[in-house]
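Hey, I'm writing a tutorial for new members on how sequence and structure tokens pair up, and I'd like a real worked example in the thread rather than a made-up one. If someone can provide the structure for the chain below, I'll link this post from the tutorial.
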Amino acid sequence: MTALVTLTKRHILLYIRDRSAIFFSMLSVLIVLLMMLVFLKDMNRDELIQLIQNANGTINQQDASHLITMWTIAGILIVNAFTVPITMIGMLTQDKEQKRLESFYCSCVPRHILMLSYLLSAVLMGFAMCMLLMLLSYCYVSLNGFAFLTLFQFLQASFLLLLCTFVSSSLTALIAHWVNSEHAWGAFSTLAGTLIGFLGGIYLPVGMLPAAVQGVLKGLPFLHEAALMRNILTSSSLTQLFDGLPASLTDTYREVMGITITVNKQALSTEFQILTLLLCGIITLSLTVYLLNRHTAFDK
């Protein structure tokens, strides 16, 4: 346990002291935020207003903007839950390239403890940065005169962020097993950080994408993570805005905006999505530890 704590602390301190690592881990979040503010926010808001007005409902611009803001915040949180862990797991590649990993192998520290230290540091820092982003989001929404989340919704969102950082850390740790240079990992993390907004249906609502593309995205965890977070953050606004309107209209909007994920016209339950994400994280982590145990200190 002492070795796990010491190694985890070491990884976290290395990340905190590297300001460029912090910046690049947040770069994808800034890209998503910029795209939403400049290009997509008004489009999504206007389409929402038109949808409700066509159904003879009433809506004002401020309430529509609030819903789209909460929808955007949900996506940004999921992006952050991926980009910070991928930067943290990059230390594994860095240690591998600089031969520190071989020194760890020769020590008395079990290899599963070594792997868990990288994973734990990624989860802790990813979760901490998400909580910081949640606080900033709360300040932004409150300054605009709207409620953010109830205590129960906040606890739900916090649990989901912890799960998402675990899944992201496990997936990236598995990929890092086959990456042997820091340069290659940097290229991968840049590409992955850019694509995550697309894979999670964040740049564009998933309902606007071709059916074939939707099918691919539904097979990846990121869209389900975003859907679960959107469901938590937008539930109050959706209930208020669609009150008195046909349930089919609400269901259609939720599906188009990626708040509800359907397979064969059946909506996936929250419990099923959470269980699937948890299994995804556990399986990839187990596979990573297995591969690490097969690796010897003399492998090139």
